[in-house]
Amino acid sequence: MSRLKDLEKLGQAVWLDTLSRGMIEDGTLTRLIAEDGIRGMTSNPAIFEKAIGTGREYDADIKRYVDAGEDVGAIFRHLAVHDIRLAADALKPVYGKTRGVDGYISMEVSPYIANETQATVDEALSLWAEIDRPNLMIKVPATEAGLPAIRDLTGKGLNINVTLLFSCDVYRKVAEAYIEGLEQMPAGSDLSRAASVASFFVSRIDARIDALIDRRLQDANKPAQAALAQLATLRGKVAVANAKQAYQIYKEVFSGPRWQALAARGARPQRLLWASTGTKNKAYSDVLYVDTLIGPDTVNTMPPETMDAFRDHGTPRTTIEDGVEGAREVLAGLEERGISLEAVTRELVEDGVDKFAEAADKLYAALASKRLKLLNGSIAKVSEALGPAADAVNAAIADWTHWGNTRHFWARDKALWTNGDEDKKMGWLDIAERERADLRQLIAFRDEIAATRLSDVVLLGMGGSSLGAAVLNESFGQRQGWPRLHVLDSTDPDQIRTIENTIVAQATKFIVASKSGTTLEANILKDYFWERTGGAGEQFVAITDPGSALETIAKEQNFAHLFFGDPAIGGRYSVLSEFGLVPAAAMGLDLARFLDETRRMVTSCGALVPPAANPGVRLGLTLGTLATKCGRDKITIVAGDALRTMGAWLEQLIAESTGKHGKGLIPIDHEPLSDPDLYGADRVFVQLRLAGVDRAGDMLTALEERGHPVIRMVIEDSYQLGQLFYLWEIATAVAGSVIGINPFDQPDVEAAKVKVRALSTEYEKSGQLPRETPVFEDGDIALYADAANAAALGWHEHLSGYVKAHLERLKAGDYFALLAFIEHCDAHEAPLQAMRLKVRDATKNATTLGFGPRFLHSTGQLHKGGPNTGVFVEISCDHSDELAIPGRRISFGAIEFAQAIGDIAVLNERGRRALRIHLKDGKAGLARLSEAFDAALQ
What we know:
Elements: H1 3-9, E1 12-16, H2 21-25, H3 28-36, E2 38-41, H4 45-54, H5 59-67, H6 72-97, E3 104-108, H7 117-131, E4 136-141, H8 146-155, E5 160-165, H9 168-184, E6 196-201, H10 203-219, H11 222-227, H12 229-232, H13 238-253, H14 256-263, E7 271-275, H15 288-291, E8 298-302, H16 304-313, H17 324-336, H18 341-375, E9 381-385, H19 390-403, H20 405-410, H21 431-437, H22 440-452, E10 456-460, H23 467-476, E11 484-488, H24 493-502, E12 508-513, H25 520-532, E13 540-544, H26 549-556, E14 561-564, H27 578-587, H28 591-604, H29 615-630, E15 634-639, H30 646-658, E16 666-669, E17 683-690, H31 698-705, E18 710-715, H32 721-739, H33 749-766, E19 776-778, E20 781-784, H34 787-793, H35 799-807, E21 815-821, H36 826-843, E22 846-851, H37 859-865, E23 870-877, H38 892-909, E24 913-919, H39 922-937
Parallel strand pairs: 1-2, 1-8, 2-3, 3-4, 4-5, 5-6, 6-7, 7-8, 10-11, 10-12, 12-13, 13-14, 15-16, 15-17, 17-18, 21-22, 21-23, 23-24
Antiparallel strand pairs: 9-18, 19-20, 20-24
Helix pairs in contact: 4-18, 5-18, 6-18, 7-8, 8-9, 9-13, 10-18, 13-17, 19-29, 21-28, 22-27, 23-27, 23-30, 28-32, 29-32, 30-32, 30-37, 33-38, 35-39, 36-39
């Protein structure tokens, strides 16, 4: 006869404190029931983490759920529910034989909601319904929020295992909650169907108290140590004394008239269950917490090693009421000597919740890791080499993990940022799921485009309304049998004319994209091409938010299609909504495939994936920490040819989201890599690559070897672009939290718009813009600066002198920005690129190049609201052939010029180091300017 089985004769049930599928399927559990009298089992996150995270017996099921697109939360739920059902079925004979006294398997509600009453109730009810076994016990922690949940769930007829009990005072409240729950059950209910245990954790108390005693003795001087000698005798005694005291409370509570009235209706007392009975201190007996706590109407849940020990040399005799008076003296002596057991038990509850949450984190991280391996090439691969910055990043990851911030992020908790309106701007989190659920209108539009066989589609939009589509357009290219997509996001008359000369207006579909419906550029471009098509409404499509002015116009002018965006999604986060999907449909992309690919990343970045295994959260914490703790705020984007335009999209997302209140991440796009000696300690390099097309690049390895942080991202197919979009949206929002700003507003963009509106209105009244006096003029080039900048530059005889003086204002950690209000074309970009690289090579400062007015809706926010580390050269030019805007007394060229003047005016107001160089002729002027840069940098 097994010593464990002898405990049954003494009124104590033995439950097994472990669970795995293998032990159920190979008959181990059945054997333990027969040979050792095992009468129940418990599980918790740590047990599941050990079973699922480290073994391979679950891998086949995990693969099946991964292939079905399930996230780690759903995968764990499937696996756990399956195992709990198996265990419940294996224990069903015990349940029947004991008439519901024993035969239970326990499953815990999520430790993440231990302090949320209603969430605990909801999850418990959900698990109860899904597992659907009468011998299931739902584990609810004895937290302040758990007490009402215990009451309410008992009242609904659920079996409850109250966990994380340490305090006798809290145990009274737990027993009261159970009794109140029984009293809430409807009259006539069979109360015998409700069972409960109160799991008193034992060994953790001794571990904590012993450590306090040791610390007290170490800190005391020799005379004090002698006085505290009695304290040393309490080592290893407090936990058992506390448990014995709890048993006396049990006998008191479950007696008397109130309880007898419930017992008459069949109610069972809530038995005490001794948990955490494995001995942690090797100096103590390995069966200490079994031998000393044997008694009727109790349960001892043991880990396998403790069962082995008791089976070998345990002493099965009733001990629970031995030395009760001595137990009281132990507890009193502890308090008399200045150690508060109540304070210790409070801490242990908090620690217990944290430990279970940590185990859940490990479990979900392990599942996430297995999931990524199973997905293999079907998800973007992200790797990092952070060098000396790794410790700071790991600390940030640990901090986010400890506070459960990923879950707060998905709960749209605005306290992660500034407690502003962030929660109202996070509709992008689940947009891929929502779009995939209903593609009917988009597919109908796609089919119509295919049927009409248009030659061209022109997207008229700015910033977030256009840049995502530009990435898709360049990455996929024109698909056979589908029209060419052109993205027009400029007021430059030469650029508009270039597009117009490329298409046949009457055979083109025009997509007007503006969330607000009031975007100046989109509206005047629409008016221009409306006139060119003779007002053919069937050639126009609108993408806008509900209720906008553009919606009204689209309906009045009978546009062919009207697509709505989500007002809870800002423009730069809108690429996975209609603002990106409508152009994608016009290109002939397989939208279902695109969104299915995207959803793999959505799942990978989910609420239950811990930061260390969560690619989006990890990237955001990395970038935010590198900037705030390591001074590396220049995100240098190294995009391969296949993903070249991705840099422009990222530039807007990062700069406009983070650049405000004197803070910000500074994206550096399209600055080719060079010798590692040319870079300061303010850089982080991010590579974007399409496998099989773009090379990995040896230069990145050299930078990595010099200690620069390097992050590499690789996708296997252009259809995985949506994964990169989503990854970076998550990362940017998380980085905003690290930096301490609202990543969803753009307060400084409006300042330039106000200036432009005022200048445009004045032009339409007077026919001219304000006259300016140059600080320097030489033939076809003039230089303009406000008083402060002019004074800083001084007087020079030649243009190169002014350029040199301006560039000398660059300090270590600054960046240089060229802002060009001219046509964005190869002929202009080449000399401007050459200029910026010469500055980079000569000064080791990061450099950017933006074309206006596009950059006003992206880096413009950073320039004005971010850190004052930019040195700006704005370039404007005359146009020999103006382009009229229908219905307005101002031309496109004048609008562009007003935008240039308005932009630098706001830069000046913000105390930025800025000057404007005006060219009479773009091509010739850039040549002269390039010479001036050469001379200045010699």
